[in-house]
């Protein structure tokens, strides 16, 4: 169930895998997938490449490019979206992501 402030969005059937959800964006079966949780790079690296090659934009929850093969292999949040809506999705998700990060 979506939070109250996101009820203007529509959910699609979601597999229990962030990588499979990203593949749905790549396959044009979904417009975006977003999360504001900490995750490991190995959970999304291959899917990020697939989605980007298909034309999607993939960033962290703040709209910054993902960076892989770092000493600390975790990142906060993920946003994988069709290019036409990524900026609007970042503007919508970014403030919540910054708030969650500030709260620790």
From TrEMBL:
Q: Which organism is it from?
A: Sphingobium quisquiliarum P25
Q: Name one Pfam family in it.
A: Inositol_P
Name a GO molecular-function annotation: metal ion binding
Q: Which cofactor does it need?
A: Mg(2+)
One GO term under biological process is: phosphatidylinositol phosphate biosynthetic process
Q: What is the name of this protein? A: Inositol monophosphatase
PROSITE patterns documented for this protein = IMP_2
Q: Where does Mg(2+) bind?
A: 43
Could you tell me the keywords of this UniProt record?
Answer: Magnesium, Metal-binding
């Amino acid at each position: 169930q979506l939070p109250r402030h996101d009820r203007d969005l529509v959910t699609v059937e979601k597999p229990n895998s962030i990588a499979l959800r990203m593949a749905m964006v790549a396959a044009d079966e979904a417009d975006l997938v977003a999360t504001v949780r900490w995750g490991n790079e190995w959970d999304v690296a291959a899917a990020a490449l697939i989605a980007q090659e298909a034309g999607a934009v993939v960033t962290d929850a703040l709209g910054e490019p993902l960076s892989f093969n770092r000493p600390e292999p975790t990142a906060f949040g993920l946003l994988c979206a069709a290019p036409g809506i990524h900026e609007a999705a970042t503007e919508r998700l970014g403030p919540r992501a910054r708030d969650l990060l500030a709260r620790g």
